[in-house]
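thread: overnight batch results

M.L. [08:02]
morning all. the overnight job finished for the chain we discussed friday. pasting input first so we're all looking at the same thing
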Amino acid sequence: MKLSFIENLPTTSTLELCKQMANFAKKVVDSSSLPKLELLLHNGTFITGRIINFHENANKQYIWIENNIDIPEKINVFLLEVNQIIGISILDYDAYQTGVELVKPIEIIGVLELKRKKKSIEELLEKLFAKPIIVSVDIDNLYEENRSIIYKNLSFIATALQEILSDEISKSVVNEKVNIIQVNILDRIEVTLSNEILFVSIKKDNTQTSANQIKILKEKIESVF
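M.L. [08:03]
and the structure it wrote out:
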């Protein structure tokens, strides 16, 4: 495990972490995508499962836990008072990070801010490629909700390219074939290369973690060279 992951772990209470997990459940249709947890109780026993709901009653907090995770065809849930929990182990950290991404509020990005972002990415890529690289985005005609997607993914693309161009052989191959990077939004992640233009299509409704999105972009970009 990379220690950089720890930076994304919240400093929080057992109660707040249970609430957060329950909020994850509100964003999904199938509980199998929720983080698998191990709960340590005051009596010394462990419970393994997924938190699927949270509610308060008479100043007490309760969670519903699905604990049939190894037998998905059997529905088995039970109610637990939160104050019985003294520790929580996140057994599936990727699923936790995905949940964090799902509940993040959509950031409102203005046209001017996105243009500044595009310029900063071009400056970063110029240093990386040792030549000017044009980032082509139809900013003025983007819907408001799509601007934040492009804004975030411009950084992902730059990070993926930094990882790809970490050695001289890759840098030489990519450098001579790319002068423009054109970015748009589709219903899938897709990368193609034609006439020195690297076309990168971003998936609009993407529930992958930031790390996984960068990994996918890196693999798809590498596949066209």
